[in-house]
Design a protein that fits this description.
The protein is 38% helix and 16% strand. The chain has eleven helices and 16 strands. It has a seven-stranded mixed sheet, with helices on both faces. Strands 12-14-16-15 form a four-stranded antiparallel sheet. A hairpin with a 2-residue loop joins strand 6 (160-161) and strand 7. The longest helix is centred in the C-terminal third of the chain and has 24 residues, at 242-265. It is globular and about 70 Å long. The structure holds pyridoxal-5'-phosphate (PLP). The site of pyridoxal-5'-phosphate has 14 residues, from helix 3 and helix 4.
């Protein structure tokens, strides 16, 4: 089976994790954690990085540190991984869904303002499948209405908007290092920010709400959302390779594009977009199947030993988030969208083979 995404872990990562294991610092103290945070902050040219146990806890921590609570509303795109909305619900706040842009699949800024009420506190733009959101527009809206912006960059490490890295536009940005993400620590996440007060608050909440200067004294209810030294040891080496991985993802995209372009011309497929203002990192190279049922292609490829994934469902059609609303772009794209194999270590011949199978299916 050709997998959709598998991690690329080399000898250097193994050496690094081994060093952490042998040091005895196997929990959430140890040299690798602070180093990883420092290097991740430097990579984004921001002041602070706070590592977490995963991307979902990163989102929850970010919203908590901003004081999001009961009766607050937080705007999220209707097409995203459920964790984005779940983090809002963990705060007892309410996710408010906004449709996506038909061209680049991220939250449609034009549809945000109509969803803002006096209860709205924040917007979570999600840089979906490696493509950045239209951040100027979103931060303008947030400024006009006094809202926080928390970027969900779990799928877009190193992507750029107008030449600037995603994760540097909001009050806080959250990343995931799950095994299928662009870089991995097994499980793991990170919050980055230029606000030292917020970083301090996130560090306290991450560590049971304990006061850093008074052991076992709790001013508030916190969480155990810490990253381990072992995860950080893996992450440090992965981060060193991030730019190389991004170049590889962009090469993979180029090969898919070249071999599937004819179908875009014939309007049978829409290829993974890259807007003029965007540098997309193609977490998964993704396409829309326009004329035939997408699920038949999934089935067809599966029987030829090629694993793929359908796009996320619009959140508002699923039981926990159920809401009678119309999100025409998300509905359409969710049904047509397909993530193709995009691992760092996939080779050119395999990609061409997958494109040949798609060609055969479309015939
Ligand atoms: C993966 C992902 C998350 C959650 O990250 P975990 O590390 O799996 O908890 C959140 N948002 C989006 C958009 C994701 O793709």
């Amino acid at each position: 089976m050709i997998p959709v995404l598998e991690p690329s872990i080399g000898k250097e990562e193994i050496r690094s994790v081994l060093k952490a294991v042998k040091s005895g610092w196997v929990s959430s103290k140890g040299e690798f954690i602070e180093k990883f945070e420092k290097k991740f902050a430097d990579y984004h040219r921001v002041k602070e990085a706070v590592s977490t146990s995963n991307g979902t806890t990163a989102l929850h921590l970010a919203l908590k540190s901003l004081g999001i609570e009961k009766n607050d509303e937080v705007i999220v795109p209707v097409l995203t991984f459920a964790a984005t909305a779940n983090a809002v619900i963990y705060c007892n706040a309410k996710p408010v869904f906004v449709d996506i842009h038909p061209k680049y699949w991220c939250i449609d800024p034009q549809k945000i303002e109509e969803k803002i009420t006096e209860k709205t506190r924040a917007i979570i733009p999600v840089h979906l499948y490696g493509h950045p959101c239209d951040m100027d527009w979103i931060t303008d809206i947030a400024e006009d209405h006094g809202l926080y912006v928390v970027e969900d960059a779990a799928e877009s490490h190193g992507a750029e908007y107008k030449g600037k890295k995603v994760g540097t536009f909001g009050d806080i940005a959250c990343f995931s290092f799950y095994g299928n993400k662009i870089i991995t620590t097994g499980e793991g996440g990170m919050c980055i920010t230029n606000n030292e007060e917020l970083a301090k608050e996130m560090r306290i909440l991450r560590d049971h709400g304990m006061r850093p200067d008074k052991k076992y004294w709790h001013d508030k209810i916190g969480f155990n959302y810490r990253m381990t030294n072992l995860q950080a040891a893996l992450g440090i080496v992965q981060l060193k390779k991030l730019d190389k991985f991004i170049n590889k993802k962009r090469k993979i995209a180029k090969i898919y594009r070249k071999n599937l372009y004819e179908f875009q011309e014939k309007k049978e497929i829409e290829l993974h977009p890259e807007m003029s203002w965007a540098k997309c990192v193609y977490w998964t190279y993704s396409i829309l199947i326009k004329n035939k049922p997408r699920d038949e292609l999934i089935e067809y490829l599966y029987h030829k030993s090629v694993d793929t994934r359908p796009f996320f469902y619009p959140l508002n059609i699923m039981p926990p988030y159920k809401k009678e609303e119309k999100h025409p772009n998300a509905y359409k794209i969710s049904k047509e969208g397909l993530n193709l194999p995009s691992s760092i270590n996939i080779n050119k011949e395999t990609i061409i083979h997958i494109c040949d199978l798609i060609r055969e299916f479309l015939k």
